[in-house]
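Hi R.,

As promised on Friday, here is the backbone we talked about, encoded as structure tokens. Could you run it through your design pipeline when you get a chance and send me back a sequence?
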């Protein structure tokens, strides 16, 4: 398997070998220029825009630019095996699911994974001309609604499907506990968060925190007892592009076999104007269920049941975004107003200011 892991390895010859191994059907690369994509560094990867010159049949219609996503060397030494599996997960998604996916993703011209190391090289279509957003920006209600409806198509396709069992490359939280914060850790860290003053918490949020300190494990059990589908699991602003108003979903390294309510919870909490999530989401859930049932008539779930799962999924993200590290620095967070207002974690905390979420936790 031919893998590229460093910028210096991206040459015309190397790209041609990569595209040939991927049976991409692209013509021959004769020249390549590279530039780092600003902000194109995730937790485990880095991205480069490739400006290409092609020769041979099909050269005139070949894409003038592509985006290469490579492993991030600085992190490889500290990457635990479960994180390394994220490289393989994204590569496998683009090999197995994306070609027939009922939603739009970035086209992968090459998707190569080294089974020995778990590392991967991916080369995508360039979405640089589409709209996207920073972590502190709000996405319009109309675009979030469109994204929710597109997710219904994906979730319907794999709703409680036996195909998920064959996708052993997916994360499976119900079995592995990936990204789950135990109630014991939540109970230890919640009082520290409150005492730090990092966030101005309402009486409802304080009540929710106290409940979750006792019932976090029950929240996970209830989520895992619900329906299962193939989900993205990391839907925030930077993983959404819009071609006009059509959503394009990127970065599938966290894809899971899990309750689809997690996608709805993370998407709405991350992208909508803070403070409006509780008002807007019930209508989106009803529209989502309508599309879900249209595409998968066997779905037997009420809007109330789905909303309950979304409430529990919000608690999952509250814990994950705030306490996934067992030693968060709340004092530093409290001292930096910009940090605590700019990131998805603050939006999720705001979205959990909900009596309905409290009631859902009381019921587990």
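Update: got your reply. Pasting your designed sequence below so it's all in one thread:
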């Amino acid at each position: 398997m031919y893998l590229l892991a460093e910028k210096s390895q991206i040459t015309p010859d190397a790209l041609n070998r990569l595209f040939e191994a991927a049976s991409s059907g692209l013509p021959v690369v004769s020249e390549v220029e590279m530039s780092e994509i600003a902000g194109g560094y995730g937790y485990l990867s880095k991205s480069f825009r490739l400006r290409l010159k092609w020769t041979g049949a099909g050269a005139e219609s070949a894409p003038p630019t592509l985006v290469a996503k490579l492993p991030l060397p600085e992190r490889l030494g500290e990457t635990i095996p479960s994180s390394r599996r994220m490289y393989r997960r994204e590569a496998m998604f683009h090999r197995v699911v994306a070609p027939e996916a009922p939603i739009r993703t970035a086209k992968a011209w090459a998707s190569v994974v080294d089974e020995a190391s778990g590392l991967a090289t991916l080369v995508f279509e360039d979405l640089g001309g589409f709209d996207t957003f920073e972590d502190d920006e709000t996405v319009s209600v109309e675009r979030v609604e469109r994204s929710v409806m597109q997710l219904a198509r994906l979730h319907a396709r794999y709703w409680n499907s036996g195909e998920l069992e064959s996708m052993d490359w997916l994360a499976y939280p119900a079995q592995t506990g990936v990204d789950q914060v135990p109630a014991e850790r939540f109970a230890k860290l919640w009082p520290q968060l409150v005492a730090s003053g990092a966030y101005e918490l309402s009486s409802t949020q304080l009540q929710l925190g106290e409940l979750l300190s006792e019932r976090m494990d029950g929240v996970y059990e209830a989520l895992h007892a619900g329906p299962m589908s193939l989900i993205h699991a990391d839907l925030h602003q930077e993983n959404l592009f819009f071609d006009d108003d059509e959503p394009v979903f990127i970065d599938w390294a966290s894809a899971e076999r899990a309750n689809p309510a997690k996608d709805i919870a993370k998407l709405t909490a991350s992208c909508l104007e803070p403070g409006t999530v509780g008002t807007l989401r019930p209508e989106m859930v009803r529209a989502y269920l309508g599309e879900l049932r249209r595409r998968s008539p066997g779905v037997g779930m009420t809007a109330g049941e789905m909303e309950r799962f979304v409430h529990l999924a919000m608690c999952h993200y509250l814990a994950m975004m705030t306490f996934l590290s067992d030693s968060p620095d709340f004092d530093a967070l409290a001292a930096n107003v910009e940090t605590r207002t700019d990131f998805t974690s603050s939006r999720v905390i705001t979205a959990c200011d909900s009596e309905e979420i409290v009631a859902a936790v009381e019921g587990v």
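One thing I noticed while checking it: Strands lie at 28-41, 45-55, 65-71, 108-113, 120-125, 229-231, 240-243, 246-249, 256-258.

Thanks again,
M.
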